[in-house]
Specification:
By secondary structure, the chain is α+β, with helices and mostly antiparallel strands. 15% of the residues lie in helices and 34% in strands. 36% of the residues are buried.
């Protein structure tokens, strides 16, 4: 009998969070947001939802940015993006530089050619990575959101997500600092990186996650007095991440928590190929896949 191949089955465990679906920050100008997110970053405005002039949903692989019109909100950290070409990204960013003059828009290449750091017109930060084996099979999308958190909080944050949310979490180094790393879906993470810098006040921006065990975390959050909104049958919200022994506040970020039975779960998202223009148009090249080919 042929010897059976051994597999590390635990390597495929996701924990209770099955998807990091969107980051929501309000912006004051839909036109400038279109220039930055669609023309500059090369993302795709969702053609089916929020198609008026007071909100915009922008697709990045299977994830999104939600951008309602209000005073600007700034995430306390940065969003990681994976892209198939950083050279093309830089060319696109160059085309919008003049039109975004006078805003906080900027970009830099800090570590050679492996990443591009980008700042939006209102100060939100993005780190764009070249698609590689590090993120495979993700070729285009949002692999992580990294938050700046006070020193000494990483261990407590990891424990909170493990015991309250049922997520897979660990503590280690991220960008030369101690950080809690929380699994947020396939090839997606929430990263809480400790910093000595004073953090700005929380301005109500939020992230949205889907979870498999929907009622268990809800009950545990209620037991700790942390549920802030009973949104619907398929959704609730909480903001504070606390020390489970003392109740002390560790960090605040609003979580929009949805069940896998939510009507929008796994909704297909269109991602255009931003490198195709009217001058180089080819049939069949209008869209871009968000995964690499499977080589298993």
């Amino acid at each position: 009998m042929a010897r059976k191949k051994g597999f590390n089955r635990s390597a495929e465990d996701l924990g209770n969070i099955v998807e990091l679906e969107h980051v929501n920050v309000t912006i004051p100008d839909q036109g400038l947001a279109t220039l930055f997110y669609v023309t500059g970053l090369g993302l795709t405005r969702d053609p089916f939802q929020m198609t008026s002039t007071n909100n915009m949903w922008v697709n990045a692989g299977r994830s999104q940015f939600h951008l309602p019109t209000r005073e600007p909100q700034v995430l306390r950290g940065r969003v990681g993006l994976v892209m198939p070409s950083l050279d093309s990204l830089v060319k696109r960013l160059d085309t919008v530089r003049e039109k975004l003059e006078g805003t906080q828009f900027n970009y830099a290449i800090p570590n050679g050619n492996d990443v591009v750091d980008v700042t939006c017109p209102w100060g939100n930060r993005f780190r764009c990575h070249l698609a590689s084996e590090t993120f495979a099979p993700l070729a285009f999308g949002m692999p992580y959101v990294q938050f700046d958190v006070p020193q000494g909080t990483a261990d407590g944050i990891a424990r909170f997500y493990e015991e309250i949310i049922g997520a897979a979490a660990s503590v280690g180094k991220w960008d030369r600092a101690q950080a809690a790393r929380v699994g947020a879906g396939y090839r997606q993470e929430l990263i809480f990186r400790e910093t000595k810098q004073k953090l700005p006040d929380f301005d109500q921006h939020h992230i949205q996650i889907y979870i498999a065990d929907f009622s268990g975390p809800h009950k545990r959050l209620l037991d700790h007095g942390l549920v802030t909104e009973e949104s619907s049958q398929w959704q609730y919200r909480f903001e504070d991440i606390t020390d489970l022994d003392t109740g002390d506040l560790l960090f605040t970020i609003e979580h929009e928590v949805r069940s896998m039975t939510h009507p929008l779960y796994a909704r297909p998202k269109l991602n255009r190929n931003p490198d195709e223009t009217i001058r180089n148009y080819m049939h069949g090249q209008e869209t871009i896949p968000w995964t690499m080919p499977y080589n298993g």
